[in-house]
TrEMBL record:
Residues 181-191 have a biased composition (Low complexity). This is Stress response protein SCP2. The lineage of its organism: Bacteria, Bacillati, Actinomycetota, Actinomycetes, Kitasatosporales. Residues 1-172 form the TerD domain. It comes from the Bacteria. It comes from Streptomyces pini.
Length: 339
């Protein structure tokens, strides 16, 4: 079964020898691609320049890593490197599978794909379609073979270099004469370490705690503002005098009060003089109802001064032969009540 790889993905390899095949579609203006391999130690660098296998150095001294010449196949041109994983020295921890564009950039290379094939059975194990990120890359780390326990794994990378094969090789410790002709100022590329085994996830870094915002000090309270002085209101003036009441005729006959104790006669020297009673016998009042004095005009108040009411009229004197309206029976005992 062929695994379709994505950038950064990895699979376990069960084959003891594999062949890394770079394939692309040729055409007018399409650059050729050259495959290469770098054998790295535990420090991520080559042990010597002999650990770099490419078209000018097609065979490793151990004979376990070999460069294969180009071939034309129905699907396109190929360039390959073959690695005997089961027999590699234990000091080799990783094998980087790289590529370079001959005289141009990978923007001029069409349908570039990396195939990992079982060297013994010929079965394609993995397929990784490589797409340059910027188009200005002249060299690529296409993938890597790395140890994991007693076996090997493959990881898809697709990391680009703008300094060509020379810049890529010198990044891993290769000393080449053409290294001085590399473009100055190009930063070195860092190849990430192989991913951890499934089931043993790496802990995520804890974010640094953010400092809590400090409250701004409040300004000290200033002196209390003076309270507003009360505004004096208008001084009340003298109350207006009441309007004088117009004269009105005296009241008509009203029912007299209940018989009570007979009033004592007032002394001769009264505080208010009374009007003289006209001569002649006055008309007798109705029985039990004292009549007010008649023939005396009411006193008119002076203009602008309050009216002083006249004193009450005295009851008429008792005439002999008539019942006294002020007479009441003395208190009686219980034997006379109800008779």
């Amino acid at each position: 079964m062929t695994h379709a790889m994505l950038k950064g993905s990895n699979i376990q390899l069960h084959a003891t020898a594999v062949r890394a095949v770079l394939r692309w579609t040729p055409g007018t203006g399409v650059r050729d691609v050259d495959a290469s391999a770098l054998l790295l130690g535990a420090d991520g660098r080559v042990r010597s320049d002999e650990d770099f296998v490419f078209y000018n150095q097609p065979r490793h001294p151990s004979g376990l890593v070999r460069y294969l010449p180009k071939r034309r196949e129905p699907e396109g041109l190929t360039d390959s490197v073959e690695v005997d994983l089961g027999r590699l020295e234990t000091s080799v921890e990783r094998v980087m599978l790289s590529a370079s564009a001959d005289g141009g950039t990978f923007a001029d290379v069409r349908d570039l794909v990396l195939l990992v094939v079982d060297a013994d059975g010929g079965e394609t194990i993995a397929r990784f379609e490589i797409r340059p990120e910027t188009g200005s890359e002249t060299a690529l780390i296409c993938g890597e073979l790395y140890r994991r326990g007693d076996g090997w794994k493959f990881r898809a990378l697709g990391q680009g270099y703008a300094t060509g094969l020379v810049g890529l090789a010198t990044d891993f410790g290769i000393s080449v004469e053409e290294a001085e002709s590399a473009a100055p100022g190009e930063p070195g590329q860092t190849i990430p370490q192989p991913p951890p085994e499934p089931g043993f996830p790496q802990p995520e870094p804890m974010p640094e705690p953010r400092p809590e915002p400090q409250p701004h000090p409040e300004p000290p309270p200033g002196p209390n503002p003076p309270s507003p002085r009360p505004v004096p209101g208008p001084t009340p003036g003298p109350e207006p005098l009441p309007e004088p009441e117009p004269p009105h005729p005296g009241p008509g006959p009203e029912p007299g009060p209940e018989p009570g104790p007979r009033p004592e006669p007032e002394p001769a020297a009264a505080s208010h003089p009374t009007a003289p009673v006209p001569a002649g016998p006055p008309p007798g009042p109705a029985y039990g109802y004292p009549q007010p004095a008649t023939g005396v005009p009411p006193a008119q108040p002076a203009y602008g001064y309050p009216h002083v009411p006249p004193p009450p009229a005295r009851p008429p004197a008792h005439r002999p032969g008539t019942p006294d309206p002020a007479f009441t029976l003395p208190p009686q005992g219980p034997q006379f009540v109800g008779r």
